[in-house]
Amino acid sequence: MSAVLEVTDIKKNFGxxxxxxxxxxxxxxxxxxxxxxxxxxxxxxxxxxxxGQLTPSDGEVKLDGKVVTGLRPAELNKLGVSRTFQLxxxxxxxxxxxxxxxAGQEHQGNMASRLVGRSDAGLTEAANQMIGFFKLDHLAAExxxxxxxxxxxxLDAAMAFMGGPRLVLLDEPAGGVNPSMLAxxxxxxxxxxxxxxxxxxxxxxxxxxxMSLCSRVMVMAEGKVLAMGRPDEVRKxxxxxxxxxxx
Length: 247
Ligand SMILES: Nc1ncnc2c1ncn2[C@@H]1O[C@H](COP(=O)(O)OP(=O)(O)OP(=O)(O)O)[C@@H](O)[C@H]1O
Description:
Protein name: ABC transporter ATP-binding protein
Helix content: 25-40%
Domain ABC transporter: 5-247
GO molecular function, one term: ATP binding
Radius of gyration: 18 Å
Structural class: alpha/beta
Number of helices: 10
Strand content: 15-25%
Distance between the termini: 36 Å
Bound molecules: adenosine-5'-triphosphate
Function: Involved in beta-(1-->2)glucan export. Transmembrane domains (TMD) form a pore in the inner membrane and the ATP-binding domain (NBD) is responsible for energy generation.
Number of strands: 10
Keywords: ATP-binding, Nucleotide-binding, Transport
């Protein structure tokens, strides 16, 4: 399997703080990689360095073998890199379908179409497919703000997959989602991975969710990679247990 994403020796300092301290890993095509670690260990900073929200102090990011370090988020979007944020990014007054269309326009770098008219740039069909895929049919015309929190997280994840991205980085997709919706969310993420061969990286604090969703898990502590491996290997790694119990 070829690597979609290769991260080599990424570092990010904030003044005297070394938030990410020499992290290297790769993500293979069709893989779901989990990224876990105690609060403040550098997960979000690492995501932001990969996604162009932050410029790394050092290191290299490659997408499909091409160096993309330092590219802006919009440029990465056009290359097929998509993300969700810890906090929901849905537009509450727009319908579920409109939110998906807008996300598709963003992925195409086509936000200007918002200003020049309500043309959907051919994205209604793609949005309808995503609605079906994420089982949001009964909510398609509802304003997103009227959905439950768990449904909005499902929509938020669906938005990241509009436009058939090459790589999706999901930041705490399960955060605050109740157990019954969690099962739906996991089920849909597994399905999109299998049926569309989608590749993604998931930051998540919900250990059970991440261990059952991901094929490999990377554990960070204090800006470094502490462990990387299959969920069952990582779960019993003494250094990982210590990192969690120590906090
Ligand atoms: N913009 C910033 N300026 C200064 N320090 C920052 C900045 N962003 C993050 N940090 C620091 O870098 C370290 C890593 O933070 P980061 O948010 O990446 O951790 P995290 O693992 O994502 O945490 P959480 O699980 O709580 O989201 C922390 O010490 C944090 O205080």
